[in-house]
Amino acid sequence: MDDATSAERMGQLTDLRAVNQQLQATIDALRVQMEQVRHDADDRVVRAQAVMADEVSQLKAAVQAMRDRADAQAAEHASAIQAVRAGGSAETRQLQATIDQLRRELEAQKASGERALDDRHAEYERERQTLQHQVQALRLELEKRA
Hints:
This protein has one helix at 3-145. By secondary structure, it is mainly alpha-helical. The mean pLDDT is 92.
């Protein structure tokens, strides 16, 4: 091999080494950039997770407050319903007692009316019989006079 080829090869090797060093520098710079991008992305993810965790915590607190309010309202409404039922029950008992009393009075008045009617019928029947006897007696007397 001659010196010209050797020198050419040496020149090519030197060029390759320079290109290789340039590529290595580019790779190293890209690694540094990639690490920085990954680090920045990790920071953004951590911040986003912290924000989301805070929002979730606030939402949980809001949901719990709503549950507490709903439970308090349910208890309040249950108390009100119980009071209404108790009042309604007392009123129902009072009305039932009044109905029973009025029914007894009505039955007593009905029985009294029926007795009075029976008494009137009996009196009417006695009066009718008395009148029939008088009519018969007057007929007999008229027959005797005639």
